[in-house]
Amino acid sequence: EDEANMVSSGEENRLHEDLSSSLEDLVGNFDERINSCLKNPDVNTEDIAPVQVRTQDEVMAESQ
């Protein structure tokens, strides 16, 4: 049982490290993108973060 707990604890630590680094990457990329937008006011934001336009019918169909 102790061995199973050690394995579980090791997996939790690995998951925590993976999640932390993923969040750091996400925040880092976001920060880079924001900085690039603020440095150049003429940048096209659609290239950085495209917006998907959805009709009311699509939203209603998805919610049912």
At a glance:
The protein has 64 residues and is mostly helical. Helix content is 78%, strand content 0%.
Molecular structure report:
Belongs to the zygin family. InterPro entries: FEZ (IPR011680). Keywords: Coiled coil, Phosphoprotein. There is one protein chain. This protein is mainly α and 64 residues long. It has one domain. Helix content is 78%, strand content 0%. It contains three helices and no strands. It has helices at residues 2-39, 45-48, 56-63. The model is unreliable at 1-5 (pLDDT under 50).
Q: Largest sheet, described in full?
A: none
Radius of gyration: 21 Å
Number of strands: 0
Percent of residues in β-strands? under 5%
Structural class: mainly alpha
Number of domains: 1
- Order of helical and strand elements: HHH
Q: Outline, from the CA principal axes?
A: flat
Distance between the termini: 46 Å
Number of helices: 3
What key attributes describe this structure?
64 residues, single chain
Draw up the topology in text.
Elements: H1 2-39, H2 45-48, H3 56-63
